[in-house]
């Protein structure tokens, strides 16, 4: 019987081999994960890491941290009008546009053939109008002192169930959040206080969902949790939260 | 004021005080905006199985941030700098834990020193040890037969990186990384089979 991949992996990692000329510093690994090393440096460090299980574990941690940072950074730095569902490419920048790592328009040729259709202009204008109305409506409930770049991902606590940072006597029975313009479905992910994902809902069209007894039972095991809502639309995706809640033991 | 004997510039107490006050103010503003994110990032990315205290890592990251603010008048890209302080503080914490363990644990207890190693049998008999050494040798020999790119892709794959990560690390497309890792693994298996270590540790 041939060796399983797990057996090969275990044997490879068990060799106890370390970087031949000393492990790279945390700063170097951090720069590697951020893509900031020159090609020569990068290859040198990657070759070393490929043999060293210690550095490999560390580099994985750094790459996950980087991905998480980039995601947060995108949310921090994007323009306030993030709920605008249509962002067509300009002629100077044709083709797919990355928005938070996600494609928001079709490839160029397909896009050009679509925009040539007469109904597209009317549809785009309609969507734009809806987006503006939605944006204005969602702004009405927000506190004035909230920094602009945080507005889109932090709806007012009063619009949430449970409220952000609420302290509850019992696990919540439902989650609710403000509807997002252009969103066609939502999915809620629940995390424990160490940010481990412990439950994810099935997609729902409603901006609320009920928690079944099984999930509530899970929530009795600790005190603090947070949840996020992933809003999916035909052209873009956005994330609300995280919203914390605490349960009295 | 400058210290001519050492060649380093120094500053007077009032300048130091002003710089410190400015750094504290900037730190406060940064933490107000990014503090919750910093806490979540540390909590999420600190390895759970090494006994690292995320609060200590967070404090260390904040300290490094403060020092950076004292050194530099303005951080051009705060999120980039936050990534840097969180990541280096996390890795240094991992290394400190490992160093402590290596100092206190018997050298042969590798499963404690290396979190990725999971030993099935804690007291391997001579036969198991022999087959493990044999497999290790065959593995080295088979890896040595692979072309440079396939070898690199296979090693990273065996270290647990997925093909997207391998591509990112080596400047390849994901398709190229997948292709090289997959063909490299096939070659590696064939090499091991030729060496007669088919199910040596099964």
State the distance separating the first and last CA atoms of chain B: 71 Å
| The first-level CATH class name of the domain at 148-247 in chain A | Mainly Beta
What is the strand tally of chain B? 2
Helix-strand topology string of chain B: EEHHHHHHHH
Structure description:
The complex is a heterodimer of chains A (249) and B (202). Chain A is α+β, with helices and mostly antiparallel strands. Chain A has helices at 5-13, 26-33, 39-51, 53-77, 108-115, 118-140, 148-151, 213-219; strands at 98-99, 102-103, 166-168, 174-176, 185-192, 197-200, 208-210, 224-232, 237-247. Chain A has 8 helices and 9 strands. In chain A, strands 3-9-8-5-6 form a 5-stranded mixed beta sheet, with helices on one face. In chain A, strands 1-2 form a two-stranded antiparallel sheet. In chain A, strands 4-7 form a two-stranded antiparallel ribbon. The radius of gyration of chain A is 23 Å and the shape is extended. Chain A starts with a helix and ends with a strand. Chain B has 2 domains: 2-104, Rna Polymerase Sigma Factor, Chain: A (Orthogonal Bundle), CATH 1.10.1740; 126-194, Arc Repressor Mutant, subunit A (Orthogonal Bundle). Helices cover 70% and strands 2% of the residues of chain B. Chain B is built from 8 helices and 2 strands; from the N terminus they run ββαααααααα. Chain B has helices at residues 13-45, 54-71, 78-104, 110-113, 126-145, 148-158, 163-170, 174-194; strands spanning 2-3, 8-9. Chain B has a two-stranded antiparallel sheet with strand order 1-2. In chain B, a hairpin with a 4-residue loop joins strand 1 (2-3) and strand 2 (8-9). Chains A and B meet through helix 1, helix 2, helix 3 and helix 4 of A and helix 1, helix 3, helix 5, helix 6 and helix 7 of B.
Task: Describe this protein with a few key phrases.
heterodimer, A: 249 residues, alpha+beta, Immunoglobulin-like, five-stranded mixed beta sheet, 39% helix, 18% strand, B: 202 residues, mainly alpha, Rna Polymerase Sigma Factor, Chain: A, Arc Repressor Mutant, subunit A, 2 domains, two-stranded antiparallel ribbon, 2 strands, 2% strand, elongated, disordered N terminus
């Amino acid at each position: 019987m041939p060796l399983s991949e797990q057996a090969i992996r275990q044997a490879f990692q068990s060799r106890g081999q370390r970087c031949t000329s000393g492990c790279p510093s945390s700063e170097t690994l951090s720069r590697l994960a951020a893509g900031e090393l020159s090609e020569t440096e990068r290859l040198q460090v990657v070759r070393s890491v490929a043999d060293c299980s210690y550095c490999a574990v560390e580099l994985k941690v750094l790459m996950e941290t980087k991905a998480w940072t980039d995601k947060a950074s995108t949310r921090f730095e994007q323009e306030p009008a993030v709920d605008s569902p249509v962002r067509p490419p300009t002629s100077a920048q044709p083709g797919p546009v990355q928005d938070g790592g996600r494609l928001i328009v079709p490839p160029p040729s397909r896009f050009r053939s679509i925009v040539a259709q007469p109904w597209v202009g009317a549809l785009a204008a309609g969507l734009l109008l809806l987006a503006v109305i939605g944006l204005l409506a969602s702004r009405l409930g927000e506190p004035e002192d909230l920094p602009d770049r945080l507005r889109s991902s932090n709806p007012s606590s009063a619009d949430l169930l449970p409220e952000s940072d609420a302290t509850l006597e019992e696990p919540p029975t439902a989650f609710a959040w403000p509807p997002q313009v252009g969103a066609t479905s939502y999915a809620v992910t629940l995390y424990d206080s160490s940010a481990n994902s412990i439950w994810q809902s099935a997609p729902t069209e409603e901006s609320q969902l009920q928690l079944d007894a099984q999930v509530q039972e899970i929530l009795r095991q600790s005190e603090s949790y947070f949840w996020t809502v992933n809003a999916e639309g035909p052209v873009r995706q956005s994330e609300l939260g995280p919203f914390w809640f605490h349960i009295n033991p | 004021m400058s210290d001519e004997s050492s060649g380093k510039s120094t500053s007077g107490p009032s300048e130091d005080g002003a710089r410190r006050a400015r750094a504290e103010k900037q730190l406060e503003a940064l933490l107000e905006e990014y503090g919750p994110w910093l806490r979540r990032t540390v909590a999420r990315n600190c390895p759970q199985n090494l006994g690292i205290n995320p609060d200590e890592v967070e404090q260390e990251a904040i300290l490094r941030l403060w020092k950076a603010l004292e050194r530099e008048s303005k951080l051009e890209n705060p999120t980039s700098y936050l990534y840097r302080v969180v990541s280096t503080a996390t890795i240094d914490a991992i290394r400190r834990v490992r160093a402590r363990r290596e100092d206190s644990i018997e050298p042969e207890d590798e499963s404690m020193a290396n979190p990725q190693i999971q030993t099935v049998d804690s007291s391997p008999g001579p036969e198991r040890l022999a087959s493990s050494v044999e497999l290790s040798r065959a593995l080295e020999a088979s890896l040595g037969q692979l072309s440079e790119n396939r070898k690199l892709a296979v090693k990273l794959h065996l270290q647990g990186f997925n093909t997207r990560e391998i591509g990112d690390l080596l400047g390849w497309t994901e398709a190229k990384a997948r292709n090289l890792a997959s063909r490299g693994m096939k070659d590696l298996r064939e090499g091991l089979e030729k060496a007669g270590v088919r199910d040596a540790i099964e």
